[in-house]
Every structure is written in structure tokens, then in C-alpha cells.
Amino acid sequence: MKHHVTRRGLVGSLVAGAGLAVSGCDRLGQSESFQNLLSGAETLTMRAQRLISSRDALAREFSAAEMSPVFRMNGNTMPADPAYARHAANGFADWRLKVDGLVQRPLALSLGAIRALPARTQITRHDCVEGWSAIGKWTGVPLKTLLDAAGLRDGARYVIFHCADDFGGTRYYESIDLIDAFHPQTILAWGMNDAPLPVGHGAPLRLRVERQLGYKHAKFVTRVEVASTLANTGAGKGGYWEDRIDYEWYAGI
Ligand SMILES: Nc1nc2c(c(=O)[nH]1)N[C@H]1C(S)=C(S)[C@@H](COP(=O)(O)O)O[C@H]1N2
Ligand SMILES: [Mo]
């Protein structure tokens, strides 16, 4: 259907661009030059569509047999914040995830409430920019579910993930655009390899944004902020490492 609509749109503009009057569709459909125009448009559309839709494509998913026996922990493995340690010690029972910023209904959700929402499980490969990869199984709530529940407000363009950990007092954070935010494989994971998400891997919630490199997958997420700009967070480049050492903000793989 999408293909059909796009083709009609493109044919329409090509016809208009060529200065042809689209009066009798039947007559046009029979003309040989129109058929040529149509097949040319079709090829063009396929190419254009591939370009446009590549951001929506799914990351490869693997079988259970392909899961890595060891999945390395990287970056911070235990936030220094004493409040985090208290939450971890009591199983995150009083912990809340905030969803706020440019939303109609700010949310504060317990881990129990988040785990009660419909979950998605996916076995994917994590690629770290430092040169290692691992295949793991992730279970969590699609970010789309939370964003739909909160309702985006006008001007919403980015989703910023605020984390509980820091490097030398500077908090870790990351951000993505709305294409990735609503991607079906973008989840806030609370489970890993059929067990609760371990602290070292970002408990109680960590982002999985499967079309991008490892550093985008914010661990220890405490707040999901919807924003119109990245300029007002950290040094304004959209993430801890982007601010520090010029890692790409869009780290597509
Ligand atoms: N909050 C937070 N998120 C983070 C990091 C971090 O140090 N702090 N490190 C990033 C990097 S570079 C990678 S490769 C992955 C590592 O995730 P893992 O520990 O589950 O392997 O988390 C990413 N997310
Ligand atoms: Mo990484």
C-alpha cells in the first residue's frame, strides 16, 4: 500500500513536472510513453523508498543457540550515587522512572508497573565502538508504549535518557531522535538472558536501540525526557561521549 501511494505521488509529480495534463487516466494508461514513464518511476521509487525506509529496517535477530556465553560489562558497572545503592539493595521497589519534558502527561512509573506492560524480547548483537561484540537476549517495554502513554507535545524531536551513573561527577546521558524512539526494537530492557537485568548491565532499566552502537544504549536510566533540542543538556552534543570525545551522535550500524 505504501508503495502504491508513493508511486502515485511520484508519478503525479513527474507528470506535472513534464507539463502533461492528467485528464483522461484511461487514455494515459494505454499510451506507450506513459507506460515507460510508469516503469521508470517505479525503479526510482524503489530506490527512494530504500533510502527512506533504511532507518526503519529491523536489526538482525539471532537464535538462542547463537547467544554469547559471556556478555562483557562495559563502562560503568555500578553507579556511585548512594541513592542508587539503596534502591539496588531493596530490589528497586521504591524506584521510579520519570517520563517528562514535552509530554502531555508526565509519568512516574514503578518497575512493577513497567514489567506489567506488554514486553518485547529480542536476541541481538551489541557492537561496542571499542571493538567487541556480544549477542544477548533482551526483554523490556517498547519505548513507544511509554511515549504513547505520556503523549508527545508539539515540538517534540528527541528523547533524552538520563542515567544514575557518572564519570568524575558528570552524569552519563544519551539521546535519540523520534525515528529510533518509535522503532519496534527500541526497548527499555528490564530483563537480560531470561533473568532480571543485572546491575552491571544497567539495572533496573537500560535502553536497547539496536540500530546503533553500544554507547547509545544508556544503562541505569532514571528519566526519559522528551525535548525539542539537545542544546540544553550536558555540553549539547546529545550524549556523554559525544560531548567528551566527539563520538558520533548518530552511531548507525
Ligand atoms: N549509563 C551508562 N550507560 C552506558 C555506559 C556507561 O558507562 N554508563 N557505557 C556504554 C557503552 S560504551 C557500552 S558498550 C554499553 C555496555 O553495556 P554492557 O555493560 O551491558 O555490556 O553500555 C553503554 N551505556
Ligand atoms: Mo561501548
Automatic annotation (TrEMBL):
<dbReference type="Pfam" id="PF00174">
    <property type="entry name" value="Oxidored_molyb"/>
</dbReference>
<protein>
    <submittedName>
        <fullName>DMSO/TMAO reductase YedYZ molybdopterin-dependent catalytic subunit</fullName>
    </submittedName>
</protein>
<dbReference type="InterPro" id="IPR036374">
    <property type="entry name" value="OxRdtase_Mopterin-bd_sf"/>
</dbReference>
<dbReference type="InterPro" id="IPR000572">
    <property type="entry name" value="OxRdtase_Mopterin-bd_dom"/>
</dbReference>
<feature type="domain" description="Oxidoreductase molybdopterin-binding">
    <location>
        <begin position="93"/>
        <end position="228"/>
    </location>
</feature>
